[in-house]
């Protein structure tokens, strides 16, 4: 048995009195707020603070007004839009008054359904300025899932694009207005009946001239809800995770401190700005430390190297598949990537081949991050780990978080392999209008059940093995599903794969569901040989193989394994 990780202390920051801690505790939903003593500790350590991300922006606009804050590439139009800190601060005020003009009031929700465009950034800060809560939505979210998000939040304004991948987003949102509290659809780069031109109302009208007084007294405090993020919804309708600025600050402060980020940061972000990793580790971290954040509107990983070269990126963030694409692109058409130091990845296991490829081709070191919408980044492989650690571990907890691994059948017993539970200052405020569902994941001491199985790494950290509900056992050992999937996906004839049991029992045969990468059709013998060559144990190898054209996924890209079992388990 392995003991649970001890509380990890962070770099001390600003101090605050107990009265501020009590205010922080009262602002969150009472059942999920930390005790006044714990809240005071969060403040003392600098994980929580009295300031906000809007204060960070104002500070950067004062200290470095002409420094590049945002570089947003529009690939289809062959242009890059840029904002320095002074421009970003000015547009924040302009957009804030523009929202007031649309009837948005303190406590209202606004939805932002945009690809990675510069407009998302000042909108996020403008919402803080007027006391509104932002609901980021991926453009791929359509039909009933889009309706669910708007219905749950009661968003009064949506900012979107005319269409995405051929789907008429603006027209669909306009049609929803009759059934929802939605009042305005503002369209970036176009217009359709019943909508507003975003450029006319937000960009070209200097609302901030003589009107900033209208904003007085509206700003969100550090502990009020400021953003709602939706879970993947693999087992039902997605839940809306509410965060305050302090719960997000605890996570991104830990992220920034781990990598010693400062105003020299130039981050090339590949993940959507409407996801935690994009706006949190990307935009908010960049503004907090006074760095630069670069991104592009289409997922063209080969083109990302242009941003790295042009702006001297020091850090690139993206899932392992994205980093692999970047490596291939660099080998095919080398760019100057000499400024890169950190390649940070998450959402899937990192393999040694990728660590080696990133080091040899990009000259950067790979770090693994694991997190979830309810907390943001929780674990990271740190600077003082050995250079290959990301291939074997998801790292230890950031300073503001604790973790422990429990025996699968007894949460009072710690284990080397078991169910991962976490707690700390980055914990969200709960699920919007679903307090019962959030409470069900917490024990009496505030430990949150992540739903993941993990293996301790011997250094206070963990390696994620997969979702507990999808777990398979062999001789009492947990099959490392996510690692096996990552290895199979590196087979030359495989585009992606998922491993599942056939019925949902722990002793099920292992079924490999594979999407071929081309005309070649991989067979089971070839897959098994590939896994054996990677050193995988015989008892963990799949017994069946099914080839499919695509894997069923949620909007956030997670595979619907229950659907795979239903379709292929009985074959």
TrEMBL record:
<dbReference type="InterPro" id="IPR000873">
    <property type="entry name" value="AMP-dep_synth/lig_dom"/>
</dbReference>
<protein>
    <recommendedName>
        <fullName>Cyclohexanecarboxylate-CoA ligase</fullName>
    </recommendedName>
</protein>
<dbReference type="InterPro" id="IPR020845">
    <property type="entry name" value="AMP-binding_CS"/>
</dbReference>
<keyword id="KW-0436">Ligase</keyword>
<comment type="similarity">
    <text>Belongs to the ATP-dependent AMP-binding enzyme family.</text>
</comment>
<dbReference type="InterPro" id="IPR042099">
    <property type="entry name" value="ANL_N_sf"/>
</dbReference>
<dbReference type="Pfam" id="PF00501">
    <property type="entry name" value="AMP-binding"/>
</dbReference>
<feature type="region of interest" description="Disordered">
    <location>
        <begin position="1"/>
        <end position="35"/>
    </location>
</feature>
<feature type="domain" description="AMP-dependent synthetase/ligase">
    <location>
        <begin position="57"/>
        <end position="432"/>
    </location>
</feature>
<feature type="compositionally biased region" description="Low complexity">
    <location>
        <begin position="9"/>
        <end position="35"/>
    </location>
</feature>
<dbReference type="InterPro" id="IPR045851">
    <property type="entry name" value="AMP-bd_C_sf"/>
</dbReference>
<dbReference type="InterPro" id="IPR025110">
    <property type="entry name" value="AMP-bd_C"/>
</dbReference>
<feature type="domain" description="AMP-binding enzyme C-terminal">
    <location>
        <begin position="483"/>
        <end position="558"/>
    </location>
</feature>
<dbReference type="Pfam" id="PF13193">
    <property type="entry name" value="AMP-binding_C"/>
</dbReference>
